[in-house]
Protein backbone atom coordinates (compact mmCIF):
# COMPACT_ATOMS: atom_id res chain seq x y z
CA UNK A 1 0.00 0.00 0.00
CA UNK A 2 1.53 3.31 -1.02
CA UNK A 3 1.07 6.77 0.53
CA UNK A 4 -1.60 7.77 -2.02
CA UNK A 5 -3.72 4.73 -1.13
CA UNK A 6 -3.31 5.50 2.58
CA UNK A 7 -4.36 9.12 2.06
CA UNK A 8 -7.40 7.97 0.05
CA UNK A 9 -8.29 5.51 2.82
CA UNK A 10 -8.10 8.26 5.46
CA UNK A 11 -10.38 10.50 3.38
CA UNK A 12 -12.84 7.63 2.87
CA UNK A 13 -12.89 6.76 6.59
CA UNK A 14 -13.42 10.39 7.61
CA UNK A 15 -16.33 10.82 5.16
CA UNK A 16 -17.99 7.48 5.92
CA UNK A 17 -18.59 8.14 9.63
CA UNK A 18 -16.81 4.93 10.70
CA UNK A 19 -14.89 5.31 13.96
CA UNK A 20 -12.13 2.76 13.35
CA UNK A 21 -10.70 0.73 10.46
CA UNK A 22 -7.91 -1.86 10.64
CA UNK A 23 -6.22 -3.38 7.61
CA UNK A 24 -3.62 -6.12 7.83
CA UNK A 25 -1.73 -7.56 4.91
CA UNK A 26 1.33 -9.81 4.67
CA UNK A 27 3.91 -7.09 5.49
CA UNK A 28 1.70 -4.11 6.30
CA UNK A 29 -0.69 -3.24 9.10
CA UNK A 30 -2.56 0.03 9.61
CA UNK A 31 -5.24 1.13 12.07
CA UNK A 32 -7.10 4.39 11.52
CA UNK A 33 -9.27 5.87 14.25
CA UNK A 34 -11.28 9.01 13.65
CA UNK A 35 -12.78 11.67 15.84
CA UNK A 36 -15.08 14.51 14.87
CA UNK A 37 -12.23 16.85 13.92
CA UNK A 38 -9.81 14.83 11.78
CA UNK A 39 -8.62 11.22 11.29
CA UNK A 40 -5.56 10.02 13.16
CA UNK A 41 -3.27 7.17 12.25
CA UNK A 42 -2.72 5.18 15.39
CA UNK A 43 -0.21 2.62 14.17
CA UNK A 44 1.41 1.58 10.94
CA UNK A 45 4.25 -0.83 10.27
CA UNK A 46 5.88 -1.32 6.91
CA UNK A 47 9.00 -3.07 5.63
CA UNK A 48 12.23 -1.19 6.38
CA UNK A 49 13.16 -0.81 2.71
CA UNK A 50 10.01 1.27 2.10
CA UNK A 51 10.55 3.88 4.81
CA UNK A 52 13.53 5.87 5.98
CA UNK A 53 13.01 4.69 9.56
CA UNK A 54 16.32 5.99 10.91
CA UNK A 55 15.44 9.64 10.39
CA UNK A 56 14.79 11.70 13.53
CA UNK A 57 11.59 13.69 13.69
CA UNK A 58 11.79 17.47 13.69
CA UNK A 59 9.22 19.48 15.64
CA UNK A 60 6.15 20.26 13.58
CA UNK A 61 5.62 23.87 12.60
CA UNK A 62 2.49 25.78 13.53
CA UNK A 63 -0.61 24.50 11.78
CA UNK A 64 -1.20 27.48 9.56
CA UNK A 65 -1.33 27.35 5.77
CA UNK A 66 1.86 28.32 3.99
CA UNK A 67 1.28 30.46 0.93
CA UNK A 68 3.78 30.00 -1.88
CA UNK A 69 6.18 32.91 -2.07
CA UNK A 70 6.17 34.74 -5.37
CA UNK A 71 9.60 34.79 -7.05
CA UNK A 72 11.36 38.13 -6.75
CA UNK A 73 12.76 38.15 -10.30
CA UNK A 74 11.23 40.28 -13.04
CA UNK A 75 10.69 37.38 -15.48
CA UNK A 76 9.94 34.04 -13.84
CA UNK A 77 8.13 32.60 -16.87
CA UNK A 78 11.36 30.96 -18.02
CA UNK A 79 11.61 28.93 -14.79
CA UNK A 80 10.08 25.52 -14.16
CA UNK A 81 8.51 24.63 -10.82
CA UNK A 82 8.98 21.49 -8.75
CA UNK A 83 5.74 20.99 -6.83
CA UNK A 84 4.86 18.89 -3.82
CA UNK A 85 3.30 15.54 -4.81
CA UNK A 86 1.63 15.21 -1.38
CA UNK A 87 0.61 16.85 1.86
CA UNK A 88 3.21 16.66 4.62
CA UNK A 89 6.21 18.31 6.22
CA UNK A 90 9.04 19.54 3.96
CA UNK A 91 12.66 18.77 4.91
CA UNK A 92 15.76 19.93 3.01
CA UNK A 93 18.01 17.17 4.42
CA UNK A 94 17.71 13.56 5.59
CA UNK A 95 18.42 14.60 9.20
CA UNK A 96 19.70 17.69 11.01
CA UNK A 97 23.32 16.47 10.90
CA UNK A 98 23.24 15.51 7.19
CA UNK A 99 23.99 17.91 4.29
CA UNK A 100 21.15 19.61 2.41
CA UNK A 101 19.92 17.81 -0.71
CA UNK A 102 20.06 20.99 -2.84
CA UNK A 103 20.97 24.67 -2.49
CA UNK A 104 20.31 27.68 -4.70
CA UNK A 105 22.68 27.45 -7.67
CA UNK A 106 22.98 23.64 -7.61
CA UNK A 107 22.49 21.77 -10.87
CA UNK A 108 20.04 18.87 -10.69
CA UNK A 109 19.24 16.07 -13.08
CA UNK A 110 16.05 14.10 -13.59
CA UNK A 111 15.82 11.64 -10.70
CA UNK A 112 17.92 13.72 -8.28
CA UNK A 113 16.52 13.79 -4.73
CA UNK A 114 15.68 17.42 -3.92
CA UNK A 115 13.93 17.06 -0.54
CA UNK A 116 11.98 14.77 1.79
CA UNK A 117 8.31 15.11 2.63
CA UNK A 118 7.14 13.41 5.80
CA UNK A 119 3.56 12.19 5.66
CA UNK A 120 2.10 10.02 8.43
CA UNK A 121 5.55 9.21 9.88
CA UNK A 122 6.80 8.03 6.47
CA UNK A 123 9.71 9.92 4.92
CA UNK A 124 9.28 10.18 1.14
CA UNK A 125 12.26 11.21 -1.00
CA UNK A 126 11.07 13.66 -3.67
CA UNK A 127 12.94 13.30 -6.94
CA UNK A 128 13.18 15.96 -9.61
CA UNK A 129 11.31 15.28 -12.83
CA UNK A 130 13.33 17.96 -14.61
CA UNK A 131 16.98 18.92 -15.13
CA UNK A 132 18.28 22.38 -14.45
CA UNK A 133 19.70 24.79 -11.89
CA UNK A 134 17.92 25.61 -8.62
CA UNK A 135 17.04 29.33 -8.70
CA UNK A 136 14.91 29.64 -5.58
CA UNK A 137 13.72 27.47 -2.68
CA UNK A 138 10.13 28.49 -1.97
CA UNK A 139 9.52 26.63 1.33
CA UNK A 140 11.27 26.83 4.70
CA UNK A 141 12.74 23.69 6.25
CA UNK A 142 10.34 21.74 8.54
CA UNK A 143 7.32 23.62 7.15
CA UNK A 144 4.01 22.00 6.28
CA UNK A 145 3.26 21.79 2.56
CA UNK A 146 0.09 21.14 0.59
CA UNK A 147 -0.45 18.96 -2.45
CA UNK A 148 0.77 20.72 -5.63
CA UNK A 149 2.42 23.55 -3.66
CA UNK A 150 5.50 24.97 -5.44
CA UNK A 151 8.74 23.94 -3.66
CA UNK A 152 11.56 24.98 -6.01
CA UNK A 153 12.07 27.21 -9.05
CA UNK A 154 14.41 25.63 -11.60
CA UNK A 155 16.10 27.22 -14.60
CA UNK A 156 16.19 24.62 -17.39
CA UNK A 157 19.62 23.85 -18.79
Describe the 3D structure:
The protein has 157 residues and is mostly beta strands. It has two domains: 10-45, no CATH class; 80-156, OB fold (Dihydrolipoamide Acetyltransferase, E2P) (Beta Barrel). It is 9% helix and 38% strand. The chain has one helix and eleven strands, in the order H-E-E-E-E-E-E-E-E-E-E-E. The chain has one helix at 3-16; strands at 20-25, 28-34, 39-45, 80-83, 88-91, 107-108, 113-119, 122-127, 132-137, 143-145, 150-156. The strands form three sheets. The chain has a four-stranded antiparallel beta sheet with strand order 4-11-9-6, with no helix packed on it. It is elongated.
Helicity level, as a percent range? under 10%
**Secondary-structure content class:** mainly beta
What's the rounded overall pLDDT mean? 79
Label the overall shape: elongated
CATH class of the largest domain: Mainly Beta
Would you identify the CATH H-level superfamily of the largest domain?
RNA polymerase II/Efflux pump adaptor protein, barrel-sandwich hybrid domain
Largest sheet: 4 strands, antiparallel
Order of helices and strands: HEEEEEEEEEEE
Outline of this structure?
This protein has 157 residues and is mostly beta strands. It is built from one helix and eleven strands, in the order αβββββββββββ.
List keywords for this structure.
single chain, 157 residues, OB fold (Dihydrolipoamide Acetyltransferase, E2P), 1 helix, 38% strand
Topology:
Elements: H1 3-16, E1 20-25, E2 28-34, E3 39-45, E4 80-83, E5 88-91, E6 107-108, E7 113-119, E8 122-127, E9 132-137, E10 143-145, E11 150-156
Antiparallel strand pairs: 1-2, 2-3, 4-11, 5-7, 5-10, 6-9, 7-8, 9-11
Amino acid sequence: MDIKQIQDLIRFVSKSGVNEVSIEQKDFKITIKTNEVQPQVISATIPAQTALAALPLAPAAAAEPIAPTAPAGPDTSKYLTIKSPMIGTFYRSASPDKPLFVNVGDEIKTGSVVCIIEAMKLFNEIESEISGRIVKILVDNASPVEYDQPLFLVEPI
